[in-house]
Amino acid sequence: MENRMFSFWFNQSIAWVCLIGCLSIGSIQAQAPDFQKMTPAERTAYMTKMREASQADWQVMMDKLSLKLPTLPPPAEDPKRPQHLKQKEGSTNWFDEAGNNHVRSGWGNWTNYDDAKANDYKLLNPLVLKNGKSVKDAATWWKQRRPEILNDYLTEIFGKTPENTPTVTFAPTGTDSTVLAGKAIRKTILGRIDNTRYPSVNPGIPVTYYRPVNTSGKIPMMVIVWGSFPQPMPSIEKLIDAGWAVALVNTGSIQMDSGAGLHEGIIGLMNGGKDRKPDEWGVLSAWSWGLSRVLDHFEKDNGINAKQIGIEGHSRWGKTALLAGALDARWAIVFASCSGSLGASLEKRNFGETIDNVASSGEYHWMAGNFLKYGGHWDAMPVDSHELMALIAPRPLFITGGTKDLWADPKGEFLACVAASPVYTLLGKKGLSTTEMPTPDVALIDSDIAFRNHEGGHVDILDWPTFLEFAQRQFKLKK
After folding, report:
1. Domain boundaries in the chain?
2. Taking the complete model, does pTM exceed 0.90, yes or no?
3. In 94-252, which ranges are E strands?
4. Which parts of the sequence belong to the 4-O-methyl-glucuronoyl methylesterase-like domain (predicted)?
5. pLDDT, tens digit, 9 for 90 and up, residues 123-142
6. Which pLDDT tens digit goes with each residue over 166-187?
7. Residue 351 to residue 271: CA distance in whole angstroms
8. Under 8 Å between Cβ of 121 and 378
């Protein structure tokens, strides 16, 4: 229970910020309350209600799959608890001497930050078919192996995007030519999702678009996956200064980042407000669908080079960027920052965030219901993160971590890049040239799958200059 409570608190704190960010969107996602007008007691009551709703939905899916958590002793009495962990006064969580947070999952597994204890897993081979035959050419990859991997991800991990999704109509809602000291024009755009089939919900796709004023013709663009405010202006400014356009997408209005919102948003719209089936899409897939609709819009923009539109996300949005890149081949380049488990780090490697944590009631909504089967049973999961990366091949992919962001397991992210490299090589591209973890701030960008572990924590701002250098090489842009 303590891990589920920790995960819920962390994720709903972010969800709260995301919901505040939705307030400026007018009628879109009108079910979100105005937190700015609520008293502290009212906010607490609302968050308690969200927690209870999320927990209830999680339990419904567990029951559908006939899954039960084991009975565990109190953490303080747990013989599996690492003995060096201590509780801080006023906290229910456990910490090591370095200050790293340790949680026990609902399946009884404690967080591990010891690399010597992290590697008891079998790495799946992305170039071996389910029938045991090796993939020796690109044709076999495209016709057989890639569809196998994709099907596993859709049915077991992230969920299937439904057919006949509604149309989205984009329209401008405002313009500002004073941002970034006049270096850029900012336009707000709203994608209205046709909700005729279930008018009780009203999701939308709010986009904030920035374009440098000193450019003409078609220029490259990055779509930044974002779900909270304030907007990441330092990142936007770096792209503007480099001559790129930027589109910032607010994911919270596509689908709430909480299990309490699964009967609303685009998921609720498609389900008519009913519970999900185990193989139906989770929040990350719903966000990816919305991002593809943004791509639809900007492909038609005469000021944007449609063959040079990339996607970036950080943390849970880094997971989303990877998934979006795997599902839609039109994304020309993908940048996933500090994305952790079910992002870039190897899932079956026991370090930092794990499958168990994502399967908790605070994070399960990102995934298909079927994903819950792998809580406590990591080896049974049919795919691993290097295969998600392989679905993006041969397009350029930039993966980053931080030395102080152990929860996201930067070494596991690097090892996944190494394991995905043979697929890039098979498809005529260049994989990583080393199997040795690089020293901090040393970027591996001479290949089509790139990696950097910055000196620092859970941020993406430190890696944008390196990404731009990587992208300039890939797109052959002038500096």
Report:
1. 1-479
2. yes
3. 94-95, 101-102, 168-176, 184-193, 204-212, 219-226, 245-250
4. 280-428
5. 999 999 999 999 999 999 99
6. 999 999 999 999 999 999 999 9
7. 36
8. yes
